[in-house]
Design goal:
Length: 420
């Protein structure tokens, strides 16, 4: 059972506390999701066999994304995000970002056609020594390398910005930003993979399950769009942590994160296919007869050659955010008095390490997890109030979290307390 008190405390400062505001926000979200879904399906081929291929591709991509979901859940173990909001982030990536991105990409290439139109005398394919005989190939490359990264990463980033506006305190630091960015990116990756499988079948009449699933989930889904948007999320969370810096520094941090996401995406799109060609030629592999193992390690090498730097940044920020979470928990809970934090629990809090959640051995495992997570949520709530200069004594969320900890620890019946 989910801890409803803990989830509510994460959303206690929501701007949707009013029932009318919630209804309006849900209606707008459903309309945007419906429009994004319409954009995704409006160009579907008439062939009735397309839909079974698309649906099977969606199921396989969803299955391939399970390891990435488990990793996200592990990273989120100390301060779990509300499932409803996590699902919204995933849904945004899967429908809104993909649908609107598809439409805006097609609009973005129109200026490119004008720029590269010889009659405009702005640029010709042979002007700088380039010998491009197929203008369509040039346009496709420009759309993939330039238009797609800017448009898609901007729409995905918008999800985190909207969440931060609607639910102040939901994204309180780097780790939260990575979590939500990864969820948005993973939703995008799953739907995009299914669409490519379906469109390939519609165009060529053959399925390309292995050719799409292996490169797009080569590291069990922890690659591609998940990495791109997690980069932005990390920078967005870092900007929120910059409480003592002005809006200029915060804005530059956010735009810097978006630039990193766009750069990783652009490098993958622009140079990934070239890297594959070079690798296939270098190792003397016949590209027409790639087996699963060859396709996997070639795709892995391609990623390392094009945007391995993004992994290094994310690994560093993920570990850093883990230590930051531990510091907040230890420092804030040290100031909490019993019974919210019992005296026998203090040594366990101080000894907690980076990789595992502490356990209260005198409690049943499930009860221990609920108490520990509620205490962690209490610590993060205290830090948020301190950051915003708000008093502790009058905060309803703190009071209910303390009551919830005592009730859960004492084994009383679980009570769902909703705000009045």
């Amino acid at each position: 059972m989910r801890d409803q008190i803990s989830d509510w405390s994460k959303l206690a400062d929501s701007r949707l506390a009013n029932r009318g505001a919630r209804i309006a926000a849900i209606a707008i979200l459903l309309a945007v999701v419906a429009l994004g879904t319409f954009f995704l399906t409006s160009g579907s081929p008439d062939d009735p066999r397309f839909w079974p291929v698309l649906i099977s591709g969606l199921l396989l991509a969803s299955l391939a994304s399970v390891p990435a979901v488990l990793l996200i859940r592990y990273l989120d173990r100390r301060d779990p995000e509300p499932w409803s909001i996590a699902a919204l982030a995933y849904l945004w990536g899967a429908t809104v970002a993909t649908g609107f991105g598809l439409v805006l990409r097609s609009k973005a290439v129109e200026p490119l056609f004008r720029i590269f139109d010889e009659s405009a005398a702005l640029f010709t394919p042979t002007q700088f020594g380039l010998e491009i005989t197929d203008r369509g190939v040039l346009f496709d490359w420009l759309e993939t390398a330039l238009a797609a990264p800017v448009i898609e990463e901007s729409i995905k980033a918008l999800a985190l910005i909207l969440l931060a506006i609607l639910f102040p305190g939901l994204i309180s630091g780097v780790r939260d930003g990575i979590i939500y960015g990864a969820l948005v990116g993973l939703g995008f990756a799953v739907i995009e993979t299914a669409l490519y499988i379906g469109s390939w079948y519609a165009d060529a009449g053959i399925s390309s399950y292995m050719g799409q699933l292996v490169p797009r989930f080569v590291f069990f889904g922890v690659n591609g769009h998940l990495i791109y948007t997690a980069l932005f999320g990390a920078a967005f969370g870092l900007a929120i942590e910059y409480t003592r810096r002005g809006w200029v520094a915060k804005t530059l941090t956010v735009f810097g994160g978006l630039l990193l996401a766009i750069s990783a995406h652009a490098m993958s799109n622009a140079f990934g296919p070239v890297s594959l060609i070079v690798l296939v030629s270098l190792f003397g592999i016949d590209p027409g007869y790639l087996n699963f193992g060859e396709l996997w390690w070639l795709s892995a090498l391609e990623i390392l050659l094009t945007y391995s730097w993004a992994y290094l940044i994310l690994i560093y920020l993920t570990v850093r955010s883990g230590y930051s979470e531990l510091d907040i928990i230890k420092n804030e809970l040290a100031l909490e008095r019993p019974p919210a934090v019992a005296n026998e629990e203090r040594s366990l809090i101080e000894e907690e390490g980076l990789w595992r959640l502490r356990r209260l051995p005198w409690l049943a495992r499930r009860t221990s997890v609920r108490v520990v997570r509620a205490q962690n949520r209490l610590a993060f709530r205290r830090r948020l109030l301190q950051r915003n200069g708000r008093p502790f004594d009058s905060d309803v969320a703190l009071t209910r979290l303390r009551e919830h900890i005592v009730t859960t620890r004492d084994g009383s019946a679980y009570r769902s307390v909703e705000p009045s």
